Amino acid sequence: MITRRLFIGLGFLTWLYYLLLFSPDSPKSLGWINVLFLLAPLFLIPAGLRLINRYFFSITYSSASIFLYALSLTIGFMMSPGLPAGLMAIPWLLATIGLSIQFLGTLLPDLGWRRFIQLPAPFLCIGAALLFLPVGSLWALADRLGWRLLGFDPVLVRLTAAHFHYAGFLLPLTSGLILRNRLPRSLIKWTSWSIITGIPLVALGILTTHAGGPPALEVFGVILLASAGLVCASLHLYFAIRPPAHWQGNRWLWLPGSLCLATGMVLATLYGIRHYYPLPWLSIPWMYAVHGTLNAAGLALLTLGWSIRKLKLKKGKLEFED
Q: Which residue segment(s) compose the domain that 76 sits in?
């Protein structure tokens, strides 16, 4: 436990060092994407893995190795795109693939696919988070190699890598955690499955639009995922302000975190419907400067809120441990 906290702290200090060393002049510069993205592998994902072990099921991994793999990826982002930078991104890709294989290898032999999909919806959210993470790592590798994966612009390649680390891992993680509370079953199932299906639908919709197809699939996927994200934000806000209002560390972080995430989801929806209702000010640089920052800050604060003080479920109610 102490070792994991130590390496999570080292990851955060490494990210601060990167921020000070490569801090961009403007949030609209490409360097800001790197700053937001690297916070996930260096700090938030190791913290998220610790939460999975605490609340869901055991994942065997070395905190030191995860830190070193993320550090290698960070060094790759300090270099210009090319083969050397790409080689530095490979360990992180292999690490995330290993986590996904471990998840599937632990559950599927005992459960099988039919019983697997019948697991509690929050549990499936965590599984989806572990399965989506290697997708983001693959796009990060493509970015460092300078590949225009699927013909996308280099900026979109980098944004896709960030998207699958935040919306692909941290959003299902925080949603799965909050949905363990006693809530209407229909709300739990709808939110979980909207996140699980919305993430690939957004990616497939963007690919379809990029190929010259109709934008309807992208719009539907964005609205579905953003709606589920708003539910996740609203639930965290509710548990932050509901009486009795014991203002512990979780609540101080969940309150601004939920507001940031909710605003980010609204902006995502407005950008998603741009094909039908265009807003000239919603450019890609403006989106990753504002929407990206809000999403990253929101999901980071929610994750930290779950991390700093242990919570428990007692008779289906979320309670703070003293």
A: 2-320
Q: Model pTM? A: 0.91
* Cβ atoms 320, 250 nearer than 8 A: yes
Concatenate the DSSP letters of all residues of 82-132 into one string: SHHHHHHHHHHHHHHHHHHHHHHHHHHHHHHHHHHTTS-HHHHHHHHHHHH
Separation between Cα atoms, residue 208 and residue 216, nearest integer Å: 9
Of 90, 100, 94, 97, give the one whose Cα is nearest residue 59: 100
Average predicted confidence (pLDDT) for the chain:
88
3-class DSSP state of 320 = strand
> How many structural domains does the chain have?
1
Tokens 């965290």 belong to 236
Residue 158 contacts residue 33 (beta carbons within 8 Å): yes
Angle at 299 between CA 293 and CA 304, to 5 degrees: 120
Per-residue pLDDT at 25 exceeds 70: yes
Q: Is 315 helix (H, G, I), strand (E, B) or coil?
A: coil
Task: Return the exposure string of 156-173: e unless at least 16 CB atoms fall within 10 Å of the residue's CB, then b.
Answer: bbbbbbbbbbbbbbbbbb
Instruction: Please write the tens of the pLDDT for every residue from 226-275.
Output: 999 999 999 999 988 876 555 466 778 999 999 999 999 999 999 999 88
Q: What pLDDT, in 10s, does the model give residues 46-92?
A: 999 999 988 887 888 889 999 999 999 999 999 999 999 999 999 99
Under DSSP, is residue 318 helix (H, G, I), strand (E, B) or coil? Answer: strand
Identify the DSSP state of 151. Answer: G
Rounded Cα gap, residues 81 and 77, in angstroms: 8
